[in-house]
């Protein structure tokens, strides 16, 4: 008798749960239906407010699709910048590499003496220059390295580097003159350099021949 009573109570409990679930489902459907009716009413209000809609005439235009810009090799550029910054040394022995003429010119072994003479005579048109006046040693070294690097990448052949004559320096000795020669020799883009002609700066500047890439 006790087991039968317990089973009857379980059935009543299950029946109540089913009714609760059914009621909850009906309420959910009613809420969704009410929300749908509200949206429909709002749409009708918008349509009545706006009124009849007339499509715009075809402008007969072509929409151009611009392609994505080519990716910039930022990491490679950063690596290159770091390489030339670390490469230029003030302790580099340059004397043995300079030509023993009055201007202490320089040329790499693959460059002929005739090319140096052409550079001295202004055979190649001057395409760019950098003026290192007023820069401290570290600033000048960095600026010169960047200038040579950028000029070679731009395909420039002949550039001028102005280091000054030292008229305003202690002892009237140019501070950067020897260092600029030392730095230029270490740059692989530099094929040769000579002292500029008087009309191009004379003893205060160098004409540089680059290996344009």
UniProtKB/TrEMBL annotation:
<feature type="domain" description="Smr">
    <location>
        <begin position="130"/>
        <end position="211"/>
    </location>
</feature>
<feature type="coiled-coil region">
    <location>
        <begin position="8"/>
        <end position="44"/>
    </location>
</feature>
<protein>
    <submittedName>
        <fullName>DNA mismatch repair protein MutS</fullName>
    </submittedName>
</protein>
<dbReference type="InterPro" id="IPR002625">
    <property type="entry name" value="Smr_dom"/>
</dbReference>
<dbReference type="InterPro" id="IPR036063">
    <property type="entry name" value="Smr_dom_sf"/>
</dbReference>
<dbReference type="Pfam" id="PF01713">
    <property type="entry name" value="Smr"/>
</dbReference>
<keyword id="KW-0175">Coiled coil</keyword>
């Amino acid at each position: 008798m006790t087991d039968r009573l317990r089973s009857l109570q379980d059935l009543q409990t299950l029946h109540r749960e089913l009714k609760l679930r059914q009621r909850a489902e009906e309420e959910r459907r009613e809420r969704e239906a009410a929300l749908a009716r509200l949206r429909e009413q709002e749409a009708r209000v918008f349509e009545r407010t706006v009124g009849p809609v007339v499509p715009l005439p075809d402008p007969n235009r072509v929409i151009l699709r611009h392609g994505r810009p080519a990716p910039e090799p930022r990491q490679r550029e950063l690596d290159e910048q770091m390489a030339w910054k670390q490469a230029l040394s003030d302790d580099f022995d340059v004397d043995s590499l300079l030509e023993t003429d009055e201007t202490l010119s320089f040329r790499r072994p693959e460059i002929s003496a005739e090319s140096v003479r052409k550079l001295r005579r202004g055979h190649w048109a001057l395409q760019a220059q950098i003026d290192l006046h007023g820069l401290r040693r570290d600033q000048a070294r960095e600026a010169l390295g960047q200038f040579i690097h950028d000029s070679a990448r731009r395909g420039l052949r002949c550039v001028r580097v102005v280091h000054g004559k030292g008229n305003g320096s202690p002892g009237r000795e140019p501070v950067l003159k020897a260092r600029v020669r030392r730095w230029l020799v270490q740059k692989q883009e530099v094929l040769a350099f000579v002292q500029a002609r008087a009309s191009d700066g004379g003893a205060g500047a160098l004409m540089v021949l680059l290996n344009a890439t």
